[in-house]
């Protein structure tokens, strides 16, 4: 690999990277440590809290850093605490969540045949035998649903009141929290930590820190970093700024001077879509990804497409990827999932000749969605997403 003269470590700008510090989220981290402190006492209680806030405000990053810290603290104090992070756009049902946790921690336990309640019993038995407590972080929890999470929290008392070994940390955007989660969890969740938009000043500090992790000195001046912070302050979203840094870095790499200029920042600004987390596409199954790709293609020159038109395009794309198309019914389900994660709107229109579903895009331009989906399909090989 050719050594970069811009990036000291490009991977620190990738979405999955969790920095060791989160400036301006210290309070939330501390608050979390305080809330979950009862897990270090002898009394077996279940602690359940929620992180609620708009896109790119550090909910995912804070939860992962909290997980590292609490596991570390447990190691130091001789307590056993396991923190498991689950991204619910990938793991979408409670049995799948439980199965994954059991398989990861107790590889020899056969879990394929057993279902729902048996998985809960198995998990609790394991935890009790090993005197271990578990915190499950459920990110983008809407896809799992309030009812399922309520069931999980209630089952924590499987061994009776005061014997709970399972705790949860629920992560969600405010609109999903209000509409899909809170109504089921009113009695379960005791603390809600709200994440507010970052101010321009906070973003200046955050982005300067992130730039210092990823770029060589001299690549990004303080002034230009502040220009990025100003753009990102329109959304108050840290991801917005970080994505601009990454794209501007690529442009600088191709330039003579190997420095980020204001013009590069202006160009990069037009290439990022801060409301759509890039991780979201990564959670999709292969046919959902193909459905996203084909609907985006159908929407490139239209404001809205009827679902049967999108399905026609889906069949063509399936052929291109040498996979057999699923039924229209399946396709409708894929579109429902894609609407649930906020990529599309699916609206049912009442026409004279019956009802018809029409799809429109939400935030991201069709061509960008198309490109991202294609990239993932190509990376994912043949069946990784099935
Ligand atoms: N205070 C911070 N300091 C440094 N980096 C941050 C901070 N807050 C967020 N980030 C970075 O910004 C990006 C977005 O943060 P994160 O993924 O945690 O947002 P989120 O609130 O989970 O958004 P979404 O609702 O879209 O999932 C990540 O790359 C994260 O590392
Ligand atoms: Mg997140």
Annotation keywords:
disordered C terminus; Arc Repressor Mutant, subunit A; globular; 5-stranded parallel beta sheet; binds adenosine-5'-triphosphate; 13% strand; 3 domains; binds magnesium ion; Helicase, Ruva Protein, domain 3; 386 residues; Rossmann fold; alpha/beta
Structural summary, described in words:
This protein has 386 residues and is of the alpha/beta class. The protein folds into three domains: 10-15 and 198-269, Helicase, Ruva Protein, domain 3, CATH 1.10.8; 26-195, Rossmann fold (3-Layer(aba) Sandwich), CATH 3.40.50.300; 279-379, Arc Repressor Mutant, subunit A (Orthogonal Bundle). 48% of the residues lie in helices and 13% in strands. It contains 15 helices and eight strands. It has helices at residues 26-35, 59-77, 94-105, 116-129, 146-155, 174-185, 200-214, 222-232, 238-254, 262-269, 278-282, 286-298, 307-320, 328-340, 366-379, and strands spanning 48-53, 81-87, 133-139, 166-172, 191-195, 304-306, 344-351, 354-361. The strands form two sheets. Strands 2-3-4-1-5 form a five-stranded parallel beta sheet, with helices on both faces. The longest helix has 19 residues, at 59-77. The two termini are 32 Å apart. Mean pLDDT is 92; it is low at 381-386. It binds adenosine-5'-triphosphate and magnesium ion (MG). Residues 59-60, 139, 277 line the site of magnesium ion (MG). The site of adenosine-5'-triphosphate (ATP) has 21 residues, from helix 2, helix 7 and helix 9.
């Amino acid at each position: 690999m050719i050594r970069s003269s811009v990036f000291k470590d490009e991977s620190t700008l990738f979405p999955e990277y969790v920095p060791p510090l989160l400036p301006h989220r210290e309070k939330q981290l501390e608050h979390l440590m305080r809330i979950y402190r009862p897990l270090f006492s002898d009394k077996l209680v279940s602690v359940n809290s929620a992180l609620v806030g708009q896109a790119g405000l550090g909910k995912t990053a804070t939860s992962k850093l909290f997980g590292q810290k609490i596991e570390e603290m447990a190691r130091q104090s001789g307590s056993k605490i396991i923190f498991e992070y689950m991204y619910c756009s990938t793991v979408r049902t409670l049995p799948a969540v439980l199965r994954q946790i059991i398989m990861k921690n107790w590889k020899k336990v056969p879990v394929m045949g057993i279902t729902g309640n048996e998985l809960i019993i198995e998990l609790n038995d394991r935890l009790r035998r090993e005197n271990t407590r578990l915190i499950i972080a459920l990110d983008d929890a809407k896809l799992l649903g309030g009812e399922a999470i309520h069931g999980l929290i209630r089952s924590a008392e499987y061994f009776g009141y005061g014997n709970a070994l399972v705790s949860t940390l629920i992560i969600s955007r405010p609109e999903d929290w209000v509409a899909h989660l809170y109504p089921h969890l009113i009695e379960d969740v005791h603390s809600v930590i709200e994440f507010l938009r970052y101010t321009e000043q906070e973003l200046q500090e955050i982005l300067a820190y992130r730039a210092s992790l990823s770029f060589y000195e001299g690549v990004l001046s303080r002034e230009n970093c502040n220009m990025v912070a100003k753009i990102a302050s329109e959304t108050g979203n840290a991801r917005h700024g970080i994505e601009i840094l990454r794209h501007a870095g690529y442009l600088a790499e191709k330039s003579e001077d190997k420095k980020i200029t204001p013009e590069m920042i202006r160009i990069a600004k037009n290439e990022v879509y801060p409301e759509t987390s890039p991780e979201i596409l990564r959670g999709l199954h292969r046919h959902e990804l193909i459905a996203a790709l084909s609907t985006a293609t159908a929407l490139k020159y239209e404001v809205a497409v009827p679902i049967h038109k999108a399905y026609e395009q889906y069949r063509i794309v399936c052929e291109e990827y040498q996979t057999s198309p699923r039924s229209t019914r399946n396709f409708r389900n894929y579109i429902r999932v894609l609407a649930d994660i906020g990529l599309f709107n699916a609206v049912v229109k009442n026409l004279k000749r019956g009802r018809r579903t029409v799809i429109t895009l939400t935030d991201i331009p069709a061509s960008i969605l198309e490109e991202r989906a294609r990239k993932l399909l190509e990376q994912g090989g043949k069946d990784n997403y099935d």
